[in-house]
């Protein structure tokens, strides 16, 4: 878990990465197996398949007018390991990419339409480059 804490610390300490600066983040990173993430995916997204990650966010504005985001991010370590192996990339590099992807969702990014996907993808690539991690979209 220390390695994962270091990854998160490194990501959130970057400047100009698309994260809101007037927001406090309260994160729960939860690692489950495919069976559990499939059940969560079915319950909340009506998709009866396992996935690599699911992000749930509640945003509030507190009395001092600072925003707060409470985030539960579920990862399937099983799926991440499988995908990393399939794409010949390091498990922790892939996990870092997924964490960045989730943080961008927490900060309002989405990829439902192609223009939003490209915008989000470019921010992900920029952040990964700042962390000296290869472009994960190179494999597409």
Summarize the structure.
With 140 residues, this protein is of the alpha+beta class.
Task: Describe the overall structure.
The protein has 140 residues and is an alpha+beta fold. The chain has five helices and three strands, in the order αβαββααα. A three-stranded mixed sheet has the order 1-3-2.
Report the major sheet. 3 strands, mixed
Number of domains: 1
Distance between termini? 30 Å
The pLDDT mean sits at 88
| Rg for CA atoms | 15 Å
* Element-by-element helix/strand order: HEHEEHHH
Number of strands: 3
Strand portion: 15-25%
What ranges have pLDDT less than 50 throughout 5 or more consecutive residues?
Answer: none
Considering the protein shown, what is the CATH homologous superfamily?
Answer: Metalloproteases ("zincins"), catalytic domain
Q: What is the architecture at the second tier of CATH?
A: 3-Layer(aba) Sandwich
Q: What is the strand arrangement across the widest sheet?
A: 1-3-2
- What class would the helix/strand composition place it in? alpha+beta
Topology, please?
Layout: H1 2-12, E1 23-32, H2 34-45, E2 53-61, E3 67-76, H3 77-86, H4 91-106, H5 114-130
Comma- or semicolon-separated keywords:
globular, 5 helices, 140 residues, 3 strands, 21% strand, alpha+beta, 3-stranded mixed β-sheet, Collagenase (Catalytic Domain)
């Amino acid at each position: 878990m220390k390695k994962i804490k270091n990854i998160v610390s490194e990501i959130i300490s970057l400047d100009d990465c698309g994260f809101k600066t007037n927001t406090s983040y309260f994160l729960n990173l939860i690692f489950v197996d495919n069976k559990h993430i499939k059940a969560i995916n079915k319950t909340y997204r009506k998709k009866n398949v396992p996935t690599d990650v699911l992000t749930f966010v509640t945003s509030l504005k507190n009395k001092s007018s600072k925003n707060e985001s409470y985030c539960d991010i579920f990862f399937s370590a099983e799926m991440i390991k499988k995908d990393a192996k399939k794409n010949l990339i390091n498990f922790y590099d892939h996990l870092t990419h997924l964490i960045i992807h989730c943080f961008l969702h927490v900060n309002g990014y989405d990829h439902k339409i192609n223009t939003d996907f490209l915008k989000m993808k470019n921010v992900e690539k920029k952040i990964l480059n700042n962390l000296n991690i290869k472009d994960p979209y190179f494999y597409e």
